[in-house]
Write a sequence for this structure.
């Protein structure tokens, strides 16, 4: 994005300055969220955090004695509860979700080694990516913070050889240099403190061999703006306040737990995602927009349902995927990096 455009859209936001997250009131067990993030709610309740220290966002009041602050526990409940209460596998089955999935696969195939590669899926959810990777002959291990996701992977994908464990992206219980590829698709959304995101990226680097690939996803800081305009949320004053903060400092909050407005998260400006990867010691290969403007097509689903429509949508997404001035148009950003040799 050009300096002029960045000033217009971001105002006084400083790209290199760490920000402190505000506390969250937690997510309603029945909360759903926007089309570019999650699916429909399910009836499971909020699950208590798996462990007390450093498993999700660190609040400004974070304590270094291993005991979480009240704000930190509330952030963790909000995020884990959100993913316990929705079905990510349903979201990815929608027109928008399918666009995200197909584009992500296309990009990854440019860099994945021939099977069988050892792939670590950090924040792998219910195994959306682990499933197709295993089908292609790769050995996949999933680490996720949400108990329902881990259980789903073990039950549904265990027969394909996929393994899974509960874990913290910042403190992986895995040996150095034990994977060829690491995917970090999700953790960077919910680690609202910059130092935590750097920790997660460094952990991914640690467990991947020299020369291996670390691919990471972020949500664009402009996503709520475009989603709100496309779906008319932007005409709601409360939503505009959320968007204003997204643009100002990337800290996304949904204090009223409104449906379709997502949960506690951090949204990246494209330049921030690159800067964080480089600070973690990774070598950036490509920074791409996943969906591009195509993701905001109001009638995306019916067009996606036809072969010709899909081809046009994918053409539109790929045509601008690497254009710096248009990266922020994508709901999702994908940065492909490698571990220095």
């Amino acid at each position: 994005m050009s300096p002029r455009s960045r000033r217009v859209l971001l105002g006084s936001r400083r790209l290199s300055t760490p920000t402190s997250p505000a506390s969250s009131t937690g997510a309603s067990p029945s909360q759903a969220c926007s089309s570019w993030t999650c699916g429909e709610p399910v009836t499971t309740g909020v699950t208590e955090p798996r462990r007390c220290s450093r498993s999700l966002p660190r609040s400004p009041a974070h304590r270094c004695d291993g005991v979480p602050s009240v704000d930190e526990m509330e952030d963790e409940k909000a995020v884990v509860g959100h993913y316990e209460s929705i079905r990510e596998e349903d979201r990815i089955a929608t027109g928008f979700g399918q666009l995200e999935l197909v584009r992500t696969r296309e990009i990854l195939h440019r860099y994945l080694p021939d099977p069988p590669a050892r792939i670590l899926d950090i924040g792998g959810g219910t195994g959306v990516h682990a499933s197709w990777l295993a089908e292609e002959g790769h050995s996949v291990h999933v680490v996720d913070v949400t108990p329902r996701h881990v259980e789903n992977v073990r039950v549904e994908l265990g027969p394909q050889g996929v393994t899974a464990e509960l874990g913290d992206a910042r403190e992986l219980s895995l040996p150095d240099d034990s994977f060829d590829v690491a995917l970090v698709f999700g953790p960077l959304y919910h680690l609202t403190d910059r130092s935590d995101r750097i920790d997660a990226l460094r952990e991914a680097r640690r467990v991947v061999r020299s020369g291996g690939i670390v691919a990471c996803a972020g949500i664009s800081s402009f996503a709520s703006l475009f989603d709100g305009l496309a779906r008319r949320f932007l005409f709601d004053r409360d939503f505009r306040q959320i968007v204003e903060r997204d643009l100002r400092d990337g800290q996304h909050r949904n204090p009223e737990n409104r449906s379709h407005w997502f949960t506690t998260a951090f949204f990246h400006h494209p330049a921030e995602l690159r800067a964080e990867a480089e600070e973690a010691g990774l070598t950036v290969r490509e920074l791409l927009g996943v969906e591009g403007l195509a993701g905001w097509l109001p009638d995306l689903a019916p067009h996606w349902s036809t072969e010709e429509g899909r081809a046009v949508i994918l053409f539109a997404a790929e045509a601008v995927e690497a254009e710096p001035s248009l990266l922020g148009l994508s709901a999702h950003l994908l940065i492909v990096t490698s571990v220095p040799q």
About this structure: The chain has 13 helices and nine strands. The longest helix spans residues 70-85. The chain has one domain: 28-338. Confidence is low (pLDDT under 50) at residues 1-34, 36-67.
